[in-house]
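Inputs:
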Amino acid sequence: MSRRESDRRDDDEIHAVIRQAITRRGFLGRSARSAGGLLLGSSLLGACGGKDGAPAAGGDAAATGGGKTLRVSNWPLYIDKQTVADFEKATGIDTEYTEDVNDNAEFFAKIDEPLKRGQSIDREIIVLTDWMAGRLIRLGYVSPLDDAKFPNKANLVDSVKDVSFDPGRKFSVPWLSGMAGIGYNPKKTGRELTSIDDIFDPKLKGQVTMLTEMRDTFGLVMLGLGKDPTKATVADAKAAGARIKRARESGQIRKFTGNDYAEDLAAGNIAAAIAWSGDIQGLAADNPDLRWIAPKEGAMLFSDNMMIPKTSDRQDLAMAWINYVYDPKHSAQIVAGAPYLPAVKGAGAELAKIAPDLASSPLVNPPDELRARLHVFKALSDSEDTEFNRIFQDAIGA
Amino acid sequence: MAGTASGGSRRSRLAPYLLVAPGILWLLVFFVVPTLTLAQTSVTGTEGPWWEAYHRALSNYGTHFFRSLRYALGATLLSLAMGYPLAYFIAFRAGSLKNMLLGLVVLPFFTTFLVRTFAWKTILNDGGPAVWLLKQLHILGEGGRLLDTTIAVVGGLTYNFLPFMILPIYVSLEKIDRRLVEAAEDLYSTPMGAFRKVVLPLSLPGVFAGSLLTFIPATGDFINAQLLGSPNQQMIGTVIQNQFLEVRDYPLAASLSFVLMAVITVGVLAYARVLGTEELA
């Protein structure tokens, strides 16, 4: 490993820990990182390149200073433990899977400048939520996907084939999708929660957390106020912001968190939280009492998408990865380790073979009744985004 | 050889400049230039007059500024209250234990700041030993907690910056000539009188340096408030971080940074006027 590389890693590790406190889906000490197998030489790479129909030989890659390594940046707790190793074995591609995406806005702040100047961000794959994916596509920061190297694109589920921010899925494909609803500990709440209003119940004063991800928290609070987050207006944001601010100032809300709400919930520090669907399932092992619900008013749906930065000089490796994870078997294996919603046809059937309980879980396969209550936050323009964010930051007191 | 002599003296005239050059260059590149860029950012890119971002910074975040100053002051006073006696003990009474005690003061730095603050999260947990003990002693009520309170944030700041208070005070105490204390006692001073009239005044430069090293970084700190505080304990550092990274309102973030710098500079100058910097060694 070169010195610069190791510096970057140290830096990333520190930032990963910092953000763990601040943002989404981070866990201290669990930032599993799969550095590529050192045994795989460039000869294997050449072979793999041939398999993918990529003319680029190992020597060319070395000459451009780029890697023979595939570098994937994803959110923490978003993959099983086996897939990266299996992928390396199957394709011979040295893979560095890093869990350094902890917050859309923050990650964007990091990559915006270099991409604007056409510089490398040292990554072949990045995974960001729909609205941020839309922004990157609009700004021309990502490369089109090479469909010739992506035969498994046929497995993409129909409902997400055409999305407003990327018609025809030319630049992005979903990694996984999830829901934001309410996670709670019935032992602490003393009752079942069913509504968004329940988290504003004064009996839970100081025992509630909300997410720092604006669209999830605003979306749920808007649903609670009877507003439609798919058509959110500035007035709706102000109403939701005012409600959150009152609750914060009264001490109702203990914290605005990223993924660390999960620890607080498991440790019994909090009774209820705005929570992501896949996490609670994962925590059930530590604390089987915990529950996740989509409130009767509705829940928020989000998707995170794989994209290839335009400055990556090994797009062939990236395409190999994307094609690999769009195999239903491989997708099922990922979902078995991270119980979110796959966007791969046939993944459910494959999952039923390896984890039948999970395959029938509403978290992985929401029934129609639940699907009807899921909302995707409105696609905001840049100026709306700034305005909403100002209201949100003021509401959460940061 | 006259040439050599004059060459030598020219070299000696140049020497001070050569010695300060690396430091000056460093500050120029990594402090002056970024500061100017920041200043430019704070006055451009907004609709309306150049001071628009400053207006928003002052009108919306006054509470955060005052809170940061209050917390930093609290942490500084607590550090002083704990740090001075400890530094005194190490300097005057520790004997052969001196080096070990100094080592212990520095020891926490072997782990990163962040991990240590995380450890406090575990210690102050609602189900943790600290809360249990305080509840047993009826200091904390039934629904009481430590984590995500002002006490936790100020405590965390104190913990993290305490060594920066201890070390300068220790250094200033250590170099006091012991014969001065003996002389005071020979002149019928009580031990307390000798401390007040001799030791304390001579250690003030250390107190001054220590309180600056504690107060300034504590004011701008955002980790402690974020990890150990609730949303009602957020400090100005958190706001700046959020404005830069989340909202990306660079003019506001830059003007907040400048207001913070100005507030700290004014505070430090006032403090220096009271305690006097000319004694700073």
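The domain at 61-275 of chain B is CATH 1.10.3720.10 (MetI-like fold). Flag for discussion at group meeting.
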